Amino acid sequence: MKRNIRFYLALFTAKITYRALRLLGRKGTNVPGELALYICPDFLGRVQLPERVIAITGTNGKTTVSNMVEDVLDDCGWQYTCNRMGGNVNTGLISTLVSHSSPLGKPKHNLAVFEVDERSAPLLLPYIKPDILVCTNLFRDSYKRNAHTEFIFSLLNDYIPDSTKLILNGDDLISSRLKEKNENRFFGIAKEDGEDGEMKNIVCDIRSCPKCGETLEWDFIRYHHIGQAHCPHCDFASPPLDYVITNIDREKLTFTLQYDGKTHEFPIINVNFINIYNSLAAISLLITLGLSPDTIAASMQKMSISESRYAEEKFHGKDIIMHLAKGQNPIACSRAFENAKDYPGSKAVLLYLDDYYDATYSVENIAWFYDTDFEFLKDDSITQIMISGVRHHDLYVRLLIAGVSKEKMTHCVKPEDAIEEYLPEKAETLFVIYDLFNLDAANAVKKRGKELILEAEKEAQA
Amino acid sequence: MKIEVLFPEMCNLFGDLKSMDYLALCLPEAEFIRTSYSTEPLFVTESPSLIYMGPMSENAQEKVIQKLMPYRERLAELIENGSPFFFTGNAVEILGHYIEKDDGSRLAALDILPIWAKRDMMHRHNSKFVGQYEGNTIVGFKSQFTMAYTDTDIYPLFTVEKGIGLNEKLKYEGIRKNNFFGTYVQGPLLVLNPEFTKNLLTIMGLSNPTLAFEKEVSDAYLALLQDFKDKG
After folding, report:
1. Does pTM surpass 0.90?
2. What tens digit of pLDDT does each residue of A281-331 get?
3. Which positions in chain B touch A361 (Cβ < 8 Å)?
4. What residue ranges define each of the domains in chain A, with the CATH number in brackets?
5. What is the tens place of the pLDDT at every residue in A34-77?
6. CATH number, domain at B34?
7. Is B227 within 8 Å of A371 when comparing Cβ atoms?
8. Which residues on chain A place their C-beta less than 8 Å from a C-beta of chain B?
9. What is residue B168's three-state secondary structure?
10. Residue A85 carries which DSSP code?
11. Which residue has the higher pLDDT, A424 or B151?
12. Range of B98's domain?
C-alpha cells in the first residue's frame, strides 16, 4: 500500500504523542498506535517495516522468550527494533514502529523482533509478514478473549503468511501442526526418566487423531498436551525434532542440545520445564538467526527470569518463592501449582489470583477455576493454604472439590489479612502465587511474611 | 443410579465438565459412565438417571452431530418420556434445527428441540447472568460465539434479570422441555447454584437431596450474588 496524506498525518500525530508521553515520564505503549489507527485505519499496511521481521507468539512464554532473545542480541551488540516496552497487539506494534523510525517513517534498524499476541493474528500477521515466526505453544487461555485452543489455532493457521518460516514446539501436538506446508523447524525435549503416558491434568486439548479421529497413543505426556504421541491407525505422529534437549542436569544447571548433528551445552536459567522450553525456543531462533551456540550460551549465563515473574529468596532458614500465575489461564496456574507441589520440603501457599480489573470493576467469570489443577495443592507436602481475593469463597469451594482438607485452609478477601494466618514453623517454604497485576500486593505479603518468620524465630529462641 | 457423561474427551470446555465431579461428590453411590466418542452411548439401551453433555469446539459440534444422528429417535423419545438431561453451552445446539456458520451455510443438527443457532466467530459475547428459576435466583456467566433463536416461548428455563437470554433480545435463557435442561450459563452452574442443583437431583429421583460442601457452596453463592448486586 502506498503512503498517503492520511498516513503521514497519522505518523506525525503518533510521533508527537509518543514524545509528549515520554516527556511526561510515561512509556507510550499503546496511545500513539491508537491515535495512528484512528487517523489511518490501514496504517500497518502502509508503514515501512524493517527488512527482516521476527514474530514470537504462543499462549504461554512469548514474553519470556522475546526477552531472552532480545537480551542475547543486546549482549552481542545487535541493533534491532522490538516492542519490549510496548504492547503486543496492533496498537503496541504501531507505537513501536513509530518510535523507531525517522521523521518520514523509515525504520531505524533492519531487524525487528516482535512479541505478538496470538489473538491479534488477523490484525497483525497479514501486514507485518514475519520472515520467521516462533510459536511457543497453544493452550486454553482467557475464555472471554481466546475461547478455546482450536479457535486460536485456526486464527494463526489462517493468517500466518505462506512465506513465513516457522519455529515450532514439536512436543505440542496442536501448535506443531500450524501451516504444515511452510518451511519449519521443531524443538523439543526428549523423554525423561519417569515420564509415561499417564494423564495428570484436567485439560488435554488433543486426545484424538486430527487426521482420522482415532484415540492417540502417548509415548509420554509431560503436562496437558505437551509430550509425544502417535496414532495407532494412521501415519499421524509428533514431528521429528530438529532442536532436541537430550539431557537436563538439574544439579549442574545445564542442558545438552542436539541439532544438525552437533551437540552443545547451555545453562539452565530456571529448572521448571516451562522455562526450559522457553530457553529452547529462544536458542532455536537465535541459532536460526546465525548466532553461534558458544555466543548464545555465554549470554544466557548472565540471565535470570524477570523477578516480577519468578523469584526465590532465602530468609532466615526459609525459602520464599514469588510465583506469577497468569489468572484466567488454567494452564499457567496449573503449572504454578505443580511447581509448588514439586518444590522440595514442606510448603505454605498463599493464593491471590483475582483478575485485578474484574475484581475492581466487575465480577470475574470463575469457570476457569474448574479447568485448573487445584488438585496439585492437596499434596501432603503443602501444609497450609491461605486463600485471598474477592472470589475467596469460590476458590475455597474449588479446593474442597479438589480434595484439600478444610483444616489446611483459611480464606478472606485481603491478601494482607490472609498472610496473618501464616505459620512459619509448619513449612520450610512460603509460596506466594499471584496474578499479573497483583505484584505490589504480593510484595507486601512477602514483606509481612518475613516479619512473621522473624517473630516465629524469636518465639522459638525464647 | 447411572449418570452418563457424553464424549468427555471432546465436550469439556469452560470448566463445565467438572460439575460432574461435583455431582459425584454429592452422589457417592452413583455410577458415572463416561462415554467416549468411539463407543455406543449407554442411553441407546438404558435410561440413565441423567445424561450430561458439555460445551465443545465448533469442529467437535460437527463430529458430535454425526455421532448422535443415528440415535436421534431414541434421544427424542427419552426427552418426551421425561428422562433427565443436562446440556451446557453449545451442546444445546446439537439438538436444535441447525447451526448457521459465519459464511451463511447451515450445519443440520438433530432437529429435536425448537431452536437454531447462529455463529459469529469474530465477536465473542461475554456477560454476567442473573435469572430466576422456580423462585430461586440463578447466577453465572456467559461466554460464547453463538446466539440461539426460537419461534416458541413454551420452553423457557430461566427468566432473565441481568444479562441476555438465548439471544440479546430474548428475555429467557436456556430451554427446558420436560426434564431436559439446556443452558449457556457457565460457572459451572451446578457448583454456583446450590438450589438449582438440589432441584435437578430431585428430578433425578432423590428425595430431600443434600449437597457436598453444602454450607460452603451456599456461602459462595450468597457472596457471588452480593457481588453481582454491588457491581451492577
Report:
1. yes
2. 999 999 999 999 999 999 999 887 776 688 899 999 999 999 999 889 999
3. 231
4. 50-300 (3.40.1190.10), 310-461 (3.90.190.20)
5. 999 999 999 999 999 999 999 999 999 999 999 999 999 999 99
6. 3.40.50.880
7. no
8. 143-145, 147-151, 202-203, 207-208, 213-215, 330, 361-363, 365-371, 390, 393-394, 396-397, 400-401
9. coil
10. T
11. A424
12. 2-230
